[in-house]
Amino acid sequence: MSEWKVVCRLEDIPVLGARRVTRTHGLDVAVFRNDQDEVFALLDRCPHKGGPLSQGIVFGSSVACPLHNWTIGLCTGQAAAPDVGCTPKFAVKLEIGLVFLNSAELASHATDLTRPVAGPTRHTVDPHAPPLRGSLPPEGAQPCLGGRPGAAAGACA
Ligand code: FES
User: Fold this and answer.
1) Interval 28-50: pLDDT, tens
2) Closest Cα to atom 4 of ligand 1
3) What CATH number should be reported for the domain holding residue 85?
4) Do 71 and 80 contact (CB within 8 A), yes or no?
5) Any atom of ligand 1 within 6 Å of the Cβ of 53
6) Residue 24 belongs to some domain of the structure
7) Which of 8, 82, 135, 138 has the least CB density, counted as fewest CB within 10 Å?
8) Which residues make Cβ contacts (< 8 Å) with residue 49, sequence separation at least 6?
9) Does residue 87 belong to any structural domain of this protein?
């Protein structure tokens, strides 16, 4: 059984910005607000190299990652072409000025994903692996799985 949990008021989220929601397990969830007062929720982890999407700039129904400027769709979590990758999305709804996330999703969705570790990975590099290129998704990049169907707010019909 799913229950909705109030995480903040709409006015607590800056227009064209985001607010982070911490979880007991897993990375934070970023709740975004655009200039139409639509709200969206994604794991606060860019599919490129784990940048904090909550610190990105929202435009339309997308966010520009603050690290390398990838564009991530807020409805799907999908990186815009030519980049490839996806960050998990979460169901979100807005009612009477309050923003809700799904409690079950907060507890269990994408809790296995961690933020990539910066710096040399000397101990884990496979000497026979092909060289990395800038636009490749990180190892373990996942397809978009999305949140609960029909529960998202904003322009994600
Ligand atoms: S980490 Fe987001 S664009 Fe590189």
Assistant:
1) 999 999 999 999 999 999 999 99
2) 68
3) 2.102.10.10
4) yes
5) no
6) yes
7) 82
8) 67, 68, 116, 138
9) yes
